[in-house]
Amino acid sequence: MDSLLEEEDEEVPAVVGKRRKRRRRRSPSAQAALQPPLCLPFLPQLPVSSNEHKLNFTKSKEVCLRYIQDALLQKQWKRAAEFLTCYVEALEKDYSREHIGPSEMIWRIGTEILWHHSQSSMKEFSCFMEQMKTLGVKRYLKVCLEHVFHLLCNGQIDEAYQNLSLAESWRFGEQTAIQDKEMKLIQAYRGLLDYHNWSKQKNILLENGEDGFSDLAVEQEMHGYFRKAAVNLKEIIKIPGVWDVFVKCYVDLLEFYGDHNEAHQVLNEYAYNSKFPANPNAHVYLYQFLKRQGESKKSLISALKILHDIVPSHELMIDFNTMLQKSKKRKKRRLGLEVIFTALDYAGWKENAKAWSCLARQMKQIVISEKHLDWIKQEWNSRKDWWPAFHFSRYLAKRNWQENKNLSYEKALVAGILLGKDCKYFKYVSHQGCKAQLKRFRMLKKFVNRHNLVYLRISGPPDSSVQP
Amino acid sequence: MDEEDTRDFNERCAQCSEVNWGLTDGGGFYCRSCHNVIERTREVVNTDFITNSRVQTISKGSKKQEKNEGGCEWYVCEGFQLVLKKQVEALEALGVHPQMKDEILCNFWRCYLQKSKQAYCKRPAAEAVKALSVCESSTDVDSDPERPSLLDLLSLSESEGDLQTDCSFASSVSKVSESTSVCSGSVDGSLYLMKNQKEKLRMTMPMTLSFCYMALLWMREPITLSEFLRFVVEGHIPYLNVFQHFPEKMKLCGLDLKIFCVESWPVYEEVFNKMHELAAFLDLPRFPDITESCFLHPDMLCMKYLMEANLPDELHNWTCRVVKKIGIGEVDFLTLTPGNKSTGKVKYDVLAAAVIVVVLKLLFLLDDHYEWLLSEFAEERNKNNTEGGPYFEFKRWYEVVKHSLDVKQKKLDEERAKYLWRCEKPLFYSINKKSKVLKRRQMVVNLQNQFGKLSGSVQRAKKPNPSSFQLSWSEENTDGSCFHGHSLKGVLQEKRGFLTPMNPDYWLCTVKLCSERLCGHLAHYREVEFPQTYHFVLGLFSFLLRIQPSCIHEEVCMIEHKLFNKKLYKKLKYNTVLRK
Lengths: 468, 580
Fold this sequence. Notes:
Distance between the termini of chain B: 93 Å
Helix content of chain B: 40-55%
Radius of gyration of chain B: 30 Å
Region (Disordered) (chain A): 1-32
Radius of gyration of chain A: 33 Å
Shape of chain A: extended
Strand order of the largest sheet of chain B: 1-2-3
InterPro entries (chain A): SL1/TIF-IB_Component, TAF1A
Number of strands of chain B: 5
Strand content of chain B: under 5%
Low-confidence stretches of chain A: 1-33, 45-53, 464-468
Structural class of chain B: mainly alpha
Order of helices and strands of chain A: HHHHHHHHHHHHHHHHHHHHHHH
Organism (chain A): Catharus ustulatus
Largest sheet of chain A: none
Number of strands of chain A: 0
Helix content of chain A: 55-70%
Low-confidence stretches of chain B: 41-68, 126-182
Pfam families (chain A): TAF1_subA
Distance between the termini of chain A: 75 Å
Mean pLDDT of chain B: 78
Protein name (chain A): TATA-box binding protein associated factor, RNA polymerase I subunit A
Mean pLDDT of chain A: 82
Largest interface: A-B, 44 and 41 residues
Number of helices of chain A: 23
Oligomer: heterodimer
Order of helices and strands of chain B: HEEEHHHHHHHHHHHHHHHHHHEEHHHH
Number of helices of chain B: 23
Strand content of chain A: under 5%
Structural class of chain A: mainly alpha
């Protein structure tokens, strides 16, 4: 295989090399002189009179490429293939050292076309990929990986595994740092497939276990897969990066074999090592792990706190708020209010009844106890000019009432407290609720009417008396 | 047959020591026992030389077989000769007079070889080829330069009616040491590019087209340069990859690629200018006269382009008047006299197109305003009066032609993008690149097959038959898209018994012409500075001739200045007087 692959960059015509050398030689001498002569910058090439009509190979291929791109954007796969058929000639003159030369283009575009074209098959796709692998050393591992992805998408797990093993055994010259990383990726994906096999065996064992007998051979095979998977997965997650899928699988393996310390360490490292890019999932995994382990509230809260900082709209914010509300510490309850308010700033949460009920519950508590109204005031301050239109319009009141009575109840409560009994949302919902003779809506009306003064205090100017 | 030719050759084969000689198709000697192909010795060439026309084919065997590749010794000029032969044969197939090949082009070529000292002279390419033994016994060079002895030699081969490409005068004259042919397949490839041939006019691939065009012009064949180049691009005349027609034994590699491998289309100006240089270099006499009955005469070409541009036939009357007025229909103006700098070089096709543009400007002004005004008038008249031929409506003409042009232009652009440049025969710079090149070639073919299947289009449509018309309009079409018969009455008026344009004004493309010597152009064209209708008309002819609009614009400026010379001169003088 190695002999098939040759460095493509050698083929630079000799003339270019000479010219470069000459230029290089000239510059140091210019620097050495005491008064360097004025070096004039390069002028753009003079336009040739009949430039447009002077069609040459390179230009024709560039134009061809543009046609392909147009066709791709319009999902005209047949047309794209037609032009690609003509573009492939560019391979024969691919001396470019540019990052994306014709061979790279052909690989990427060809892959796209073959993947989407209705008449292509996986067999043809693989045939294409094999050819692309021989096109350049630097790209070999990338092409392999891409091929594997497509095989996996097509459910050909065994073929994918074979391809990964083959790529893993590939060597060419000195490995560069990039190649090294790519090789690690290849190994990691193989580890992933080992994990897949492991979990298959595990399920067989679990099913058999229910039947009351266990199979030693299957068990041993399973442990073998574990070892293979663990080695490779452990390697990749040492490198800074986003390795969600690998981390999850590795932790699953560790937890199964009871190595909770190691799992905890891996997740901690993944979440807190500053060399790794900020990754919300890292904190989610850590939180879930801690929860599974039955760790203390404190450590759970600290895991979610960071998640809140990175993704304030994360779905775990409800759990976070619930935990904080229950806390005995004032500061944590205060944070809880902030968390739920912030979450509801996002459109994705607009119709989340659970979130609204969290907010409603906490606000009700505060109003009844008449303590910490300033918390609400502070949160409301920055929202009062846009939340009414965003959440509490008459239109939304109508829609929420029709679609989800629960939601409209919670929202109406919040609206009533924040905007008073004359607020459009509250008025509509409570009116509808009373008309439908629903008891809790009558209670709601009563509650809001009784605490109507709160709204004045909340929306009023900064009031020194309420400061804590 | 073979027996006759080989009877006198009694030497033993170097490989198997048998005396059993046969002749290969190419006329080389080979041993029938062990199939060893050998060099022919000179004695035999000399004995058969004068008597037998077969000599020429035999002499091919004298080319040295190279050890490993099985290629033969060949010279760059032989390569070009082959190219020219292929091209002229293609022209012949297109209907050019057969005389062109054997009498005109062949003579031009011989003359070139002689002038550039590559053959038919005392010391062919002497200063460059160091290690050669020049003009030995066999070549008895005549002192008379008009008719060197080798020419007789050559005419022998022409009894077969060919421009004999395989008879190599250069190689029969000189032997070059092997060391010079290291980095090219041809013997003198490296020298060819190294030589500073300023005074010599080095042969290039575009020059082959200049040769052909020169011969066409000499023959006064009804084909313009733009048309000729279009046929080249459309593949009717071999140019790109023409080396694939070289015999198997002529190996191309190294520097030969730089000489014979073309990767861009010929450019009108380059071929045109080189042709004039060439004509001067060869000291050719004045070309045959271009008279009114010649296809290249502006009156003729205007007729053709008026038809192709779907303009009324009546306009021809006006183009003829312009041509006559400024004297560009004169024989002396149109006929090429090489080396005479006082007479201009005429681009017949561009000139004719420019005359039409000027006439359109005279009648319709093309200022984005007046032509539409006239068009409205004509439309009104056509609505109310159906008697007689319809008046020419500029607007309808624009719509019809624009639509047609857009479609064709789009098709042409796509064809250009889809153009396949490579041929079956792969080229490699050196032997050690060979395997790699072949591998790449194979991959390209594989990929082409793979994606060709997915492209849905059935096999590439065969190249269209060559046609001198790119746009065609037929009066038989009932949709009224043909304007040939339309009348110009709407834009003309009668004055003292003469028909004159209603349009009293004119605008000049430029008041002052640039110096061609200083900036290379008579005038410069910037699209934004000119009316859109004018640009459209230029674009139309630019499409028909496959040249830049600026090129036609320049010619328009030239014609305008000839036409308005007196008026302009007066005005300029008047202005300068005023300023004083």
